[in-house]
């Protein structure tokens, strides 16, 4: 008897879901007909997905999408863009900054709620109304849209004063020294993404940098949650263990000279404020992505891939020939008897010094375009040819010259 009731309950639930979905689709048709009428006769109307559950997509995707739209507005025609966020918003202050964005002839409208998200799904699949949907997520790969574009995300002077007031009240810092924003990835923030653990590293890697430049710079160690605290340093604010504010992490990046740390989504906040970005401990599997990311004005240094059978580092050609360049989970690395090793303290401090020189224009593109640099990207573009492989050095995609000199095995194996 209970089995029959269970089957009956499943059937009724399925029918209920079907009729609710059908009813919503029927309601959506007149809504989109009216929208299409407005779109054709009065003003352009578009709908886009605001991927608010992940900070990197939340900021970089919409920044790239709107920067492209701003460049391509034609005939002075007004546009209305209705952005629909996920059910979860990872940083409410970022949502506020998006609401503030001002672009001539574009008006942003943010609508939340399950019905709006459902309508968005219909739009993506619709042949009749699909052109009203803008690909805000797919545009995230077009970082050239933001390379020379003005910053769309802006904070107020009041907000900027807020963080300086907080720093004055809480810490004994020399506020004449500029700030640099540091970040390391670990699994405290998103424990459900443990399969990305090969991207994690300890914050202790920053200590030599903080100590060496204690008289010239202050540092923020960013993040809302973290597994491991930094040893106390007078010139470093360890935000995850002092203040969990989403807003403070945003403001801290806006007042910093540049970002230096992991390739986690938080670095996109510096990008939207048009701050230079330098990445350490970059995952080898992401070389194809990194060469597209020409907004990384300070370049990057990768982790070292090790063949555990031989205990030898793996060169670029070996990575490509064995298709190890496309490993994206910790389990896959184990399957092929591979591991990735963090950058050494010497590699990080040498790269940080180079980043300072690049920021201060003391290290030029000619200095970076060494024979080793050219050889590295020649191998990458041989195995992954596309339009991005033409002028990699002239774009901002490069590896630290000191790292390449030390790790010449990358292009000799």
**Arithmetic mean pLDDT:** 85
Low-confidence stretches: 387-394
From the N-terminal CA to the C-terminal CA, the straight-line distance is: 68 Å
The helix/strand class is alpha/beta
SSE ordering = HEHEHEHEHHEHEEHHEHEHEEEHHEHHHH
Report the helical percentage. Answer: 40-55%
Total number of domains:
2
The biggest sheet amounts to: 6 strands, parallel
Portion in beta strands: 5-15%
Q: How many strand units?
A: 13
Q: Care to give the gist of this entry?
A:
This protein has helices spanning 2-41, 55-72, 92-100, 114-125, 144-147, 157-170, 207-212, 239-242, 246-255, 267-272, 287-290, 316-321, 330-335, 345-359, 365-368, 371-383, 401-406; strands at residues 44-50, 79-85, 106-110, 133-134, 179-183, 218-221, 236-238, 256-261, 277-282, 300-302, 304-307, 312-313, 338-341. With 413 residues, it is α/β, with parallel strands linked by helices.
Question: What can you see in these coordinates?
Answer:
The protein has a 6-stranded parallel β-sheet. Strands 3-2-1-4 form a 4-stranded parallel β-sheet, sandwiched between helices. The protein folds into 2 domains: 18-143, no CATH class; 157-411, no CATH class. It has 413 residues and is an alpha/beta fold. Residues 387-394 have low confidence and may be disordered. 43% of the residues lie in helices and 14% in strands. Strand 8, helix 10 and strand 9 form a beta-alpha-beta unit. It has 17 helices and 13 strands. The longest helix is centred in the N-terminal third of the chain and has 40 residues, at 2-41.
